[in-house]
Amino acid sequence: MVVAAGGWRSCSQKCCVSLPGTQEGAPEPQETEDDSDSAWESRALRGAVVGEVPGRNWDYSLQAALERKIWKNWWVRGILTLAMITFFFIIIYLGPMVLMTIVMCVQIKCFHEIITIGYNVYHSYDLPWFRTLSWYFLLCVNYFFYGETVTDYFFTLVQREEPLRILSKYHRFISFTLYLTGFCMFVLSLVKKHYRLQFYMFGWTHVTLLIIVTQSHLIIHNLFEGMIWFIVPISCVICNDIMAYMFGFFFGRTPLIKLSPKKTWEGFIGGFFATVLFGLLLSYVMSGYRCFTCPVEFNNDTNSFTVDCEPSELFQLQEYNIPVVLQSVVGWKTVRMYPFQIHSIALSTFASLIGPFGGFFASGFKRAFKIKDFANTIPGHGGIMDRFDCQYLMATFVNVYIASFIRGPNPSKLIQQFLTLRPDQQLHIFNTLKAHLVDKGILGSLEDPTL
User: Fold this and answer.
1) CA-to-CA distance for 132 and 130, rounded, in angstroms?
2) pLDDT tens digit sequence for 369-423
3) β-strand partners of 321
4) Per-residue model confidence as pLDDT tens digits over 26-84
5) Crossing angle for the helix pair 265-286 and 227-251, nearest 10 degrees?
6) Which of 121, 312, 430, 431 has its CA 20 to 30 A from that of 381?
7) Which residues pair with 297 in a beta bridge?
């Protein structure tokens, strides 16, 4: 708050600063650019003017401060953030299939926001079939990505249903045919006076599909590996966003990057430490529940999707030795924790140090097209894409991290592929595997009649 040593004075609903030595009856200075709301807020946040607040004027000064735009924005953002977190808890409770549906809805909304920006910026009002083709390509790309995902994770369900089996067998050919149809429709829609603009928008649509659909697909992959791989990364990004905002709001003084003038080093560093601690605590809580750690599978007996399994070593408590340097500080020699908590440090570090660059990228995009937000879907937050710019980058990292350091060969998927082979191919694999196991000493001699 801007407080002068001489006290507070009311001046047309503005808080005027009385400098030391200013007489009560002295003429008031003319309002300049530095007296604007933004300058006042900047001085208030950075402690540029410090003094004492007389007790009798405290109520007035507090009311005046809370009426400022920056505090109104604080309350709007805070209330809606709590509402979104509550909604997040609800959909987590409803299970992985509801989460997948929500991811699809978010993907569609983000695609709509970016396509609308291109539509408005390039004044594409007269382009024939532009919107129709954009949504058609979205459908084609989703069919290509999610068709393979369903086949990969729910093979037994696909093989049980004849229509799904046909779609799965010829999935790539169908996907190519659908895309080729859209490509031909685009060529036929070309109009002489709009050639350049139409190709601009064709490229705009495909880059948007690459960013939005591809990374949404990776989010679904992470979810099917276990809800913990979906919830922890997303929660770390949310935590970092909130804590960086709070640290920057109260302590921010040093600008971080020109693309986002409101971002500060204090917020960046404070958000990092808070997010790492949050990731460790959240991982510890979730690692003890199978519903979060087990991959999503289809159960033929119950005809339902299940998340029940024997926890892997990643989610079993183990004892770790504390470095000698820290033993004298904490007073312990060992600590019991889940191995996943160690991986959570990598996730939260990426969410804090690299994830924000997704937001900086989005800021640069918005500045390039002279817009404040992608949309006005959420008051105080902008559009859905404004909330998910960091999440998509995080999803790609998590998917690469799982493939590189976590996921190994999946026996159930190998068996699924084995069962699709011809009988002679299955017999050949069986004999090869049996000979290999005998050579390794795992099975007895080939002459053993029990084999």
Assistant:
1) 6
2) 888 889 888 776 788 898 888 999 999 999 999 999 997 666 767 777 788 789 9
3) 334
4) 444 444 434 444 444 444 444 444 444 444 454 545 455 555 666 666 677 677 778 87
5) 150
6) 121
7) 306
**Listed residue (320, 324, 353, 355) closest to 334, CA to CA:** 320
pTM over 0.70: yes
Instruction: State the CB neighbour count (10 A cutoff) for residue 357.
Output: 14
Tell me the two tokens of residue 168.
């799965």
The three state secondary structure string of the chain is: CCCCCCCEEEECCEEEECCCCCCCCCCCCCCCHHHCHHHHHHHHHHCCCCCCCCHHHHHHHHHHHHCCHHHHHHHHHHHHHHHHHHHHHHHHHHCHHHHHHHHHHHHHHHHHHHHHHHHHHCCHHHCCCHHHHHHHHHHHHHHHHHHHHHHHHCHHHHHHCHHHHHHHHCHHHHHHHHHHHHHHHHHHHCCHHHHHHHHHHHHHHHHHHHHHHHHHHHHHHHHHCCHHHHHHHHHHHHHHHHHHHHHHHHHCCCEEECCEEEEEHHHHHHHHHHHHHHHHHHHHHHCCCHHHHCCCEEECCCCEEECCCCCCHHHCCEEEECCHHHHHHHCCCEEEECHHHHHHHHHHHHHHHCCHHHHHHHHHHHHHCCCCCCCCCECCCECHHHHHHHHHHHHHHHHHHHHHHHCCCCHHHHHHHHHCCCHHHHHHHHHHHHHHHHHCCCCCCCCCCCC
Distance CA 100, CA 104 (A): 6
Asked if 275 contacts 345 with a C-beta cutoff of 8 angstroms, the reply is no
The bridge status of strand 260-264 relative to strand 297-299 is unpaired
Whether 284 has a pLDDT exceeding 90, the answer reads yes
Contact present, 102 and 220 (Cβ < 8 Å): no
Q: Which residues contact 181 (CB under 8 A, 6 or more apart)?
A: none
Phi first, then psi, for residue 67 (nearest 5°) are -80, -10
Rounded CA separation 438/419 (Å): 23
Residue identified by tokens 């030595």 is 21
| C-beta contacts of 294-302 below 8 A and 24+ residues apart | 294/226, 295/153, 295/224, 295/225, 295/226, 296/96, 296/97, 296/153, 296/223, 296/224, 296/226, 296/227, 297/153, 297/154, 298/153, 298/154, 298/156, 298/157, 300/156, 300/157, 300/160
Give the N- to C-terminal CA distance of the chain in Å, as an integer: 84
